[in-house]
Amino acid sequence: MHIAKMAMFTAGIITATSAALAAGQTKPAYQGRTPQDVYRVTCGYCHGHNVGPLILGRKLPAATIQTMVRAGRGAMPAFRPTEITNAELAALGLWIEKSKANAKEHGQ
Amino acid sequence: MSAPTGTGVSRRDVIRAGAAGAAFLSTAAIASPLDGARMMPPGVDSDRFAAAVKELRAVVGADWVFANAESTLPYLSTFTPDPDGKHLPSGAVAPASVEEVQAVLKVANTYGLPLWPVSTGKNMGYGNATPATSGQMVLDLKRMNKIIEVDAELGTALVEPGVTYQDLHDYLQANNLPYWVDVPTVGPIVSPLGNTLERGVGYTPYGDHFFMQCGMEVVLADGTVVRTGMGSVKNSTTWQAFKWGYGPYIDGLFTQSNFGVVTKLGMWLMPAPPVYKPFMVRHMEMADVSKIVDAIRPFRMNNLIPNCVLMMGAAYQLAMFKRRADIWTETRSVPDEAIKAEAVKNGLGMWNTYFALYGTDEIIAAIEPIIRSAFEATGGEVLTEKEMAGNPWFEHHKTLMRGGMSLEEVGIVRWRGPGGGMVCFAPVAPAKGAETAEQTKLAKEILGKYNFDYNAAFAVGSRELHHLIFLLFDKDDAAEERKAQACMEEMVLRFGEKGWAAYRTGVSTMDLVANQYGEANRMLNKRLKAALDPNGVIAPGKSGITL
């Protein structure tokens, strides 16, 4: 019997990011996941979900977001460029800074 | 040679220095001249380290070698205590392919550079990405993130180290495949490969991850690529179907060890059942632990309860969503009465036992009364969605027992304060009530001596329980961090005197636990290490194994 195989699938990030993108460009032309994707599969499990503080709609500076992600703090582990690329993180920081509160989120 | 520890630089200092400004973010992850305080590998001076880094950059690209203080920062992050800076990496290197792993190992052998492999580096409660000894360079395999194959008929998967449970879950959903994944408590950001190699557990009937593993690909220290089981047979179609292959079964050698770098892992996926029914059994007294274990044991042995049962202590459950100061403001350990009062307010008992039934309505209808009557005979209240829907703890375990994604248990880390701090002591207990009660008593006594709380759970396999004792402390308090390490060591030693050793342990107690498994065992591991990795470049100190 022919066994159906799934095609090779790249699960995570497309890693063709360049370090130069994060160095001062205001609109990084990142390749990879959108900020919404990153938020869905990482941040949103704790923030807005009883565990971490709410971070959407609070005008948190993008630089603060970036520092927190790379350093970790308290119950929040650090996330490395291999998990969230510099370009993805730059876009994520800006997206969170400019985000509106999500009424469906709950927590502290 | 012992690992250097005496630079006077603590992890706290390093992290604060790095986090003080966001400067490192604008310079990105380019490894720059060696600056800042970091731990060099034992016996490797800074010139030699710089030469190794240069070669590593040539292998993986400059963006993927992290060798200055700023870019190494995320690799330092851990919840576990490290008061003397004994677990600081020298940097990290992130290959994207098996060939790059081979080339990195070649560089490591040339320069005597120790490598600490991680998959997603989220070994929570056990050290995250931090190494057993300072100076190791983290071999970060996260970029190897392909789901190579899912066999839709056999329900098997072959994945690389960087694939997360979330990735696999999303893949099954996107392709409408009728299978479940089985997650540990922090599924979204951790790796099936990494968790299985640590012999972690989950909460569906496929909860024993190493049992459900089938076939590996391993790169040995000399660059040899070995496929285990059926994987080395030419034109094999059974690599993920048959675990044992032919001759000695070797997969176990590559779990909790440092004998090779695992680059692919096969695993079995649970067929999604037509009906799933989660249960919670509520007991109101700490002393009920004995009765509960004796009630569960026969059902796990005969498999009427098919999943890995979790008996969650009230203090552990409360810590998920509440902080200690909400419940208790004194220094001494929170007394049972205070925990009980808060538990009752939240619909919880002192022990909350979660299991589930899977199958069809008919199957569940036949089994449920048998189990229900056994638990009711112990004084427990058997609860289902009918009574508990909407209760956040019930909903959480309902998610876990069907392999759903959640990070809610991470909340326990900040029980004592915003600095966070958590290390897990996980002794194995036989599934016998009396002995389990003795373990509970001993844990409370030792924790009480240090004013820590008993935030614990039991995960019931078939004939044993992993007693998961989470020592929660505040990393912002240096004295408390040191006390946490002392308390952890006392638990390891005193449980050891009774014959209760850990099934897995964090980087700060690996040697201590390895000693409890005896000299002959340690020497055998040492001989294997010498044969497979004669320069000792792969994870020295992992599970207490060194040259």
Topology, element by element:
The complex is a heterodimer of chains A (108) and B (547).
Chain A: E1 9-10, H1 19-22, H2 35-41, H3 62-71, H4 86-98
Helix pairs in contact in A: 2-4, 3-4
Chain B: H1 11-19, H2 23-27, H3 46-60, E1 65-66, H4 69-76, E2 91-93, H5 98-111, E3 115-118, E4 137-140, E5 146-151, E6 156-159, H6 165-174, E7 179-180, H7 192-197, E8 213-219, E9 225-227, E10 261-268, E11 270-271, E12 275-283, H8 289-301, E13 309-313, H9 314-321, H10 324-327, H11 336-345, E14 351-359, H12 361-376, E15 381-383, H13 385-388, H14 392-400, E16 422-425, E17 428-430, H15 433-449, E18 455-460, E19 464-472, H16 478-497, H17 510-516, H18 519-532
Parallel strand pairs in B: 2-4, 3-4
Antiparallel strand pairs in B: 1-2, 5-6, 6-10, 7-11, 8-9, 8-10, 12-14, 12-15, 13-14, 13-18, 16-19, 17-19, 18-19
Helix pairs in contact in B: 1-4, 3-5, 8-15, 15-16
Summarize the structure.
The complex is a heterodimer of chains A (108) and B (547). Chain A is mainly alpha-helical and 108 residues long. Helix content of chain A is 31%, strand content 2%.
Structure description:
The complex is a heterodimer of chains A (108) and B (547). Chain A is mostly helical. Chain A has a domain at 30-98: Cytochrome Bc1 Complex, Chain D, domain 2 (Orthogonal Bundle), CATH 1.10.760.10. Chain A is 31% helix and 2% strand. Chain A is built from four helices and one strand. The longest helix of chain A is centred in the C-terminal third of the chain and has 13 residues, at 86-98. Chain A is globular and about 30 Å long. In chain B, a hairpin with a 4-residue loop joins strand 5 and strand 6 (156-159). Chain B starts with 10 loop residues before the first helix and ends in a 15-residue tail after the last helix. Chain B has helices at residues 11-19, 23-27, 46-60, 69-76, 98-111, 165-174, 192-197, 289-301, 314-321, 324-327, 336-345, 361-376, 385-388, 392-400, 433-449, 478-497, 510-516, 519-532; strands at residues 65-66, 91-93, 115-118, 137-140, 146-151, 156-159, 179-180, 213-219, 225-227, 261-268, 270-271, 275-283, 309-313, 351-359, 381-383, 422-425, 428-430, 455-460, 464-472. Chain B has three domains: 11-140, 2-Layer Sandwich (Uridine Diphospho-n-acetylenolpyruvylglucosamine Reductase, domain 2); 147-271, Uridine Diphospho-n-acetylenolpyruvylglucosamine Reductase, domain 3 (2-Layer Sandwich), CATH 3.30.465.10; 275-509, FAD-linked oxidases, C-terminal domain (Vanillyl-alcohol Oxidase, Chain A, domain 3). Chain B is built from 18 helices and 19 strands. By secondary structure, chain B is of the alpha+beta class. Helices cover 35% and strands 17% of the residues of chain B. In chain B, strands 12, 13, 14, 15, 16, 17, 18 and 19 form an eight-stranded antiparallel sheet that branches. In chain B, helix 1 (11-19) crosses helix 4, helix 3 (46-60) runs antiparallel to helix 5 and helix 15 packs antiparallel against helix 16 (478-497). Strand 1 (9-10) of chain A pairs antiparallel with strand 5 of chain B, so a sheet runs across the interface.
